[in-house]
Amino acid sequence: MKATEAKLVEVIRKAPQFTIPIYQRTYSWTERECRQLWEDVLRVGGDDQVAVHFLGSVVYVEDGLSNQTDRAPLLVIDGQQRLTTVTILLAALRSALGEAEEPLDGFSKKKIENRYLRDPDEDGERSFKLLLTQTDRETLKAIVADRPLPDAASVTVLRNHDLFRAWLDGASDMAVVCRGLSKLIVVEVALNRDHDNPQLIFESMNSTGRQLSQADLIRNFVLMGIEPAEQTRLYQDYWRAMEVAFGQEAYSEHFDGFMRHFLTFRTGTIPRLDDVYEAFKEYSRRSDVAAGGVEALVRDLNDHARYYCRMIPNVGSLSEPDRGLADAFGDLHELRVDTAFPLLLELYGDYDRGTLDRDDFLAIVRMIEAYVFRRVICAIPTNTLNKTFAGLGRTLRKDRYLESVSAALLSLRTYRRFPQDEEFVRGLKSRDMYNMRQRSFWLRRFENHGRKERVSLEDYTIEHILPQNENLPAGWVEDLGSDWRQVQEKWLHTLGNLTLTGYNSEYRDHPFTIKRDMEGGFASSPLRLNKGLGQLSVWNEDAIIERADRLAEHAVSVWPAPVVSDDIMSVYRWGTSGTSGYSIADHPHLRSGPTRNLFDALRRELLALDASVREEVLKLYVAFKAESNFADVVPQAHTLVVILNMRFSDVVDPRGRCRDVSKVGRWGNGEVEVRIERLDDVPYVIGLARQALELQIGGGEELEAEFHS
Fold this sequence. Notes:
Blueprint: E1 2-7, H1 8-14, E2 18-19, H2 31-45, E3 53-62, E4 74-78, H3 80-96, H4 109-117, E5 130-131, H5 134-145, H6 155-169, H7 174-182, E6 184-192, H8 198-204, H9 214-224, H10 228-246, H11 248-267, H12 276-284, H13 287-311, H14 323-335, H15 341-353, H16 358-377, H17 385-392, H18 401-410, H19 421-430, H20 439-448, E7 461-464, H21 474-480, H22 484-491, E8 498-501, H23 504-507, H24 512-517, H25 541-558, H26 566-569, H27 594-607, E9 614-617, E10 622-625, E11 629-635, E12 640-644, E13 659-660, E14 672-676, H28 682-697, H29 703-708
Parallel strand pairs: 2-4, 2-5, 3-6
Antiparallel strand pairs: 1-6, 3-4, 7-8, 9-10, 10-11, 11-12, 12-14, 13-14
């Protein structure tokens, strides 16, 4: 490695050519970063007391440390965002200067062209001082060469060039701009491919530029370590196809999320958002994945990226060709069921390979929608859905795909349950259906269920049949009766009182009969949601309740629960732990005495934490589990040792009672040990055990506040 401090314009001038490798991310600086650079240039250019401004580092790979005598292109490892932005600024400055204008020595139109933008001794692509990755390359070349832009121009490159042109047009002194550019310095780091590890250096750089996404790091990790020719082939065959599938704007927005869902699907473990890169490295080093090689890995990524893009409406260049599936994916997207993507990626892969037929695939997607929406209506917390969907694929029997998914969802208990019709109908009729994020979703699905010609909600607004006005006109008060205020408060935002109309401004607070009979009124409405309103003479509490009953029954058919016979359900045995063959009597310290009293008190509270908690007596300890063990109790002569299945760094322990046992031998599962010696210890330990349980089932957000309150 050779590192020197140098002026950036001199680094550009002396280099034969900088090339951004295909594994690097596309150009991504926004207006915020460009504006910061522009302001820095003006500040140092206008202040004679400031000699230099440090911009960061430029790290590149060369074949040998021989002062670049071979004129080979230099592969940029770090600093491409700075190089690209300064090049764009230089191109804009060249265009802004007159033919004979030279505000500062070295900054005339011709000198900028021949020193910093192009090499006059070279022809074709070799003449450009900077070559970007494929998405951005042709746009920057067109700007530098002052020729027409390509059809699919880089949005980011073009936008930032336009920004600099506008700022230069408003600049009062071009000499200040030129002087500022001449004061930009970088640390120039030249690496030798034979002696330096570019990937390790890349990961360890603490860059001042725009932060790399997890997907950027993954692409670099996959492609950086292989030969250039193989890099190019794999990029063109697979990675470039993913970039095109997502599209320029959506790639940066959606690709990190896709990688997280892909890893969850492949490993069964949900990586943290900021740990996706580390999780991918660990996955890629698994013996089965490593044995398949890099090409098999990127091919698998490409396949599932294609499925992912087809399941997200209006993203990139791909769309689902099957109308029924496209509609179902669109409904899931509107419902925001992102947590289901690990399962959906597996389902789509099996559909693509013919393992899952189209009708069953569509039925499962609709079943997932019904499962999620029913839970929303029944106010069941959604923070367990990610783990539910992450693990569901491992339980399926793919020779009986639809049946096994149905049975798997119906077998879920307590906080993961699939609400049945009675609970769903009760929730629909009683909850506030207006002030919910999903109101447009459910109204549209209600109206369009079974329709071949779908109704667009953009043409309609939500109407309260009984108006929202707290001061109801006399006609409404008469229809509702003496307790009209209580009726309005109770039923205003509920299912029975909500509908769609294109005449909201005309309806206003008019009496029901006027809303019914006016032009465009309920009696002549073509909407299914308004069916029956034209036959009513009064709108009161009884009418609201009757309509809610009818619509709730309709909702059961829109979002049906799966039906599986008891005989078939008995074939599936999810969640059964079996028996270990041991009992409490097999633990001498639990047969009687003070330790048994401690255990009985602890056991009672642990089992009361959630209906899903069950006990299993093992040879050396007693396990308490929901999905798996969350608390293991080891009986001793006068003490209970409780091992909590969580990382020590995650436990909230204001009294300092817990011990980190991650590096010592112990019975049980987990890194946290806490001891119970008195009955007074039990409530505090239950609070700790609740943390382990909540982390297992996907909650835990409020634990710290609860513990410190």
